[in-house]
Amino acid sequence: MNENPTNDAFEDPLENYEPKTYDDPLERAIAEESAKQIQHQPHTSIGPEMTVAAAVAKLASDHVACLLVEEDGKLLGLFTNREVLNQVALEKKMLDRPVREVMTTDPVYVREDDPIAATLCVMALHGYRHVPILDADERVLGIASPQRVTSFLAKHLGT
Question: 67, 97, 109, 110: least surrounded by Cβ within 10 Å?
Answer without folding.
Answer: 97
